[in-house]
Specification:
alpha+beta; single chain
Length: 184
C-alpha cells in the first residue's frame, strides 16, 4: 500500500511538472551587431573548393565588385576565375578548424621521451563559407575560402551580409525563404 502511494505521488509530480511547462517562442530579433571594421575592397584568400567546375585549390584574392553586385575570386595571375552574385547567396557563415601542424605531427612520432608533447602544436584555420544557388547549372553549392585571421573573417562576413542584403543570425547571415534570389 505504501509503495503504491509512493509510486502514485512520484508519477503525479512528474506529469504535473510537464503539464505546467510552457514553450518559449523563438526570438527572431538578431543579436546586437558588434562594431567590426569594414572589410577591405580586396583581400588574400585561398579557395578550398565547392564550386561546380573549379575543383582544385588555389591561392588568390577575393574582391567585392559592387557595380556588378558580386564577389569575385582572382587567381595568382590576376585573372578572374569565378564570381558569385550577391543575389545568389543563401547563407554566409564562418567556420574554424583546429589542426595539428605538420612539424608537430612529425615530431610527435619521434621515439624520444617528451616528443609526444609536440603533438599539442595546433593552429586554427578560419574559413568563409558561402552557400549559393547557381543559376547556370541549376544546383546549390558551398564555396569555401580560407582567410588569414579572425578579424578579417568577421569584417568580411559583416560586409558581405550587408551587401547581399542578408539577415544576421548569430555569426552567420542568411536569406529567408521566399526572399528574392536568382531564378533557377
Amino acid at each position: 500500500m505504501k509503495k503504491t502511494l509512493l509510486y502514485m505521488c512520484a508519477a503525479f509530480s512528474v506529469f504535473s511538472a510537464n503539464a505546467f511547462a510552457q514553450p518559449r517562442p523563438i526570438d527572431k530579433a538578431s543579436a546586437p551587431a558588434v562594431a567590426v571594421a569594414p572589410a577591405p575592397a580586396s583581400f588574400a584568400a585561398k579557395y578550398e573548393g565547392g564550386l561546380f567546375g573549379f575543383s582544385e585549390k588555389q591561392t588568390g584574392t577575393l574582391k567585392f565588385d559592387d557595380p556588378n553586385e558580386r564577389l569575385v575570386f582572382y587567381g595568382k595571375d590576376g585573372k578572374e576565375k569565378f564570381s558569385i552574385p550577391y543575389k545568389a547567396m543563401l547563407v554566409v557563415s564562418p567556420q574554424s578548424r583546429s589542426v595539428q601542424s605538420t612539424a608537430g605531427n612529425v615530431i610527435s612520432h619521434i621515439p624520444l621521451q617528451g616528443a609526444g608533447l609536440a603533438g599539442l602544436l595546433r593552429s586554427k584555420n578560419r574559413y568563409l563559407l558561402v552557400n549559393f544557388s547557381d543559376p547556370d547549372a541549376d544546383v546549390k553549392g558551398l564555396a569555401n575560402f580560407k582567410l588569414d585571421n579572425k578579424e578579417l573573417l568577421a569584417s568580411v562576413l559583416q560586409t558581405l551580409g550587408q551587401k547581399a542584403k542578408l539577415i544576421q543570425r548569430g555569426d552567420a547571415y542568411y536569406r529567408p525563404r521566399g526572399a528574392a534570389t536568382i531564378d533557377l
